[in-house]
Amino acid sequence: MRAKVGLFSDHGGYTLKQDLLNCASEYNFVDYGTNSADAVDYPDFANQAAQCLKDKTIQKAILICGTGIGICMAANRHSWVRAFVAHNITEVKLAREHNDANTICFSGRYQTLDEVKIFIDTFLKTPFEGGRHARRVDIFSKI
Predict the structure, then answer these.
(1) Of 45, 80, 119, 142, which residue is least crowded by CB atoms under 10 Å?
(2) CA torsion, points 58, 61, 64, 67, in degrees to nearest 10?
(3) Beta-carbon neighbour count of residue 76 at 10 Å?
(4) Looking at residue 39, which CATH number applies to its domain?
């Protein structure tokens, strides 16, 4: 069974999110907005993603804003969210293997669809190693 993946963006990530939705047959995406390029506040979408993860409505989240930074910072305000901004394939693999990342963040303005798709594939296919890393991840939930 494929993980249910929530897609969330502000206006800065709207175009990239729509492009990803056009690839939906490759993924099990659920679109949580925004639904236009009109200005919205990225913390609202980060909070919605966090709630969906907590409720187990989704198993993983993809967040997109202009840079990926702001929406990532907002998401990480929740102790059960382990979000990161993806810059390269090594970071994506290690975020999953060592940190059990459940949320990947992208820049809607500075990253290409092809790059993002490679990162998403890696994010969804890379398992958490557990072991010594599990203790550290557990600390996150206690902060």
Answers:
(1) 142
(2) 160
(3) 17
(4) 3.40.1400.10
